[in-house]
UniProtKB/TrEMBL annotation:
Superkingdom of the source species: Eukaryota
Signal sequence residues: none
Domain EH: 22-81, 147-230
Pfam family, one: EH
A GO BP annotation: endocytosis
PROSITE patterns assigned to the protein according to its UniProt record, in alphabetical order: EH (PS50031)
Name of protein: EH domain-containing protein
Coiled-coil segments on the chain, per record: none
InterPro entries per UniProt: EF-hand-dom_pair, EH_dom
GO cellular component: cytoplasm; plasma membrane
Amino acid sequence: MSFFFSKSPKNVYGELRLSPTERQLYDSLWNQANPQGAARIGAVQAVEFLNLSGISPVTLATVWELTALDERGQDYFDRNAFDAALRLIGHAQKGLTPTVALLTVESRPSLNATGLVNTAAVYPPTSYNQFTGVPPAAAWPPLPFTEMKTYRDLFKNLDKENEILKYDVALQILLKSGIPTATLAKILALVDRAKRAGFDEDEFVMAMYFVMALKKNAINELPPSLPAEVKQILLQRFIQPQS
């Protein structure tokens, strides 16, 4: 399968040559992700759709970095970039690490009747350890009650459905932080415990916690999964201190 390189605004990768089977499958997925039939989809649409694949937050961030295009600091996917992301997701669902080289290899993402399959149960994300560079639970920065209350009040004032904040609304809020879109996608996938592409109040607070910790340089890396120890620490810090 040939691969022709061209310069894109963000990446150097080529126009994919899809097999007939891939073309039929990718056409269907593009139409699902882009029901308006636009020439491109933005970061919000892309994150919400690609997260349905169930690949780990770290892997999704890698796919994003390798395939997303950039225009004046705003990430987006045209059809070719979207196809590239799908090809890498197909490989990632089989346990392979996404690389530029794999863009030349045919793949078919796992699907069900509604679209991409969540394969997290088949390929669970690896818990972090001392080799990842992520601080242990005891080293995570505290979450002051006043800061937590600010996040909860913000959540209460946002548009929700059945007390669940939609993925696109959450991403629009987090984009204001200036944190790169790929990192925000990783954070949202990290805290989305139910894998529903939506967030309850606690999950939104955790997302804000990680965003602000990165913004303040209190941490410099995210864990590939949300350890039970960290969840417990965060929940303990949600409790108002006694005066």
